[in-house]
């Protein structure tokens, strides 16, 4: 009697990962959770919608930035859901973006008209739900004003100022964008683990979402995790600005904020002192010029910076914008036929110095 052959147990189906994909098009099924998606707008053309950006992640924690052009958005817009898993097929492969990058991967993805996008049933797909790229103060300072990478950071909330912070308004009453900038904004100070304090500006919808959740929170958050921020030079210091792709997580939202909260310890025993080298530490208050002068006269010698907001009441062009002054007494020189002279120093052939008027 012939012995029956033993059959090997069926192997689980494996999907390609982004690192193994090459060429111009991928015609294989790729299993990816959708981490987040956001609108891409052209602010120079009246906030014209260009499409939707997506952040996808594969089974090896490779995150890739994808793009759906505006003319194809109607095919997929109603099917996009964050934290859901999809099988993609027949998409275009391009080189990764050079600016406003939210992924380190060499590839990017563009949705074509022939792409297959199938929502997978809920199950244990064993794929990470997040791909965070944390950076510290020095890392952000090294790429300030480059618009290159949009990194993430986490820290302890130290100060908060903004529009309608005590208002219970919802997104339905969010101020409309005026020109290229929204009138809805928030200003935060976060202290990092190394003691550095960093400024954060939240704009538009991101500010409105933060304000709404802040007002609804019975227990105000201690730790914030803010993603994909753009470091810019604002006044004398660097500040991190929210972007369309920014997400904000509070104390117990994700594992990273929970771990940071644990590190802080009960009653803030592990809270580091604010580093003296941080130029971002400020005291937000409105003062007059007289109060600033009094501060300079009475306080101990120290470096400080002020933002001055004023209103132009009148321009007096009859006085000109500058004058030629005496190099000795700084008074205005008078003109003769072939030379300049000073009535106060009683000297002719004086060397003039241009001085600008201060109104």
Brief descriptors of the model:
single chain; 359 residues; mainly beta; OB fold (Dihydrolipoamide Acetyltransferase, E2P); eight-stranded mixed beta sheet; 33% strand; disordered N terminus; NA-bd_OB-fold; RFA1B/D_OB_1st
What portion of residues is helical? 10-25%
If classified by CATH, what would the architecture of the largest domain be? Beta Barrel
Strand order of the main beta sheet, please?
1-6-7-4-3-2-5-8
Determine Rg (CA atoms, Å): 29 Å
The arrangement of helices and strands along the chain is EEEEHEEEEHEEEEEHEEEHHEEEEE
Structural class: mainly beta
Q: Number of helix segments?
A: 5
Please give a structural write-up.
By secondary structure, this protein is mainly beta. It has three domains: about 20-120, Beta Barrel (OB fold (Dihydrolipoamide Acetyltransferase, E2P)); about 135-175 and about 180-270, Nucleic acid-binding proteins (OB fold (Dihydrolipoamide Acetyltransferase, E2P), Beta Barrel), CATH 2.40.50.140; about 315-355, no CATH class. It is about 10% helix and about 35% strand. It has five helices and 21 strands. The strands form five sheets. The chain has an eight-stranded mixed beta sheet with strand order 1-6-7-4-3-2-5-8, with no helix packed on it. A five-stranded mixed β-barrel has the order 9-12-13-15-14. Strand 2 (about 30-40) and strand 3 form a beta hairpin. The longest helix has 13 residues, at about 205-215. About 25% of the residues are buried. Residues about 1-15, about 170-180 and about 270-285 have low confidence and may be disordered. Pfam families: DUF223 (PF02721).
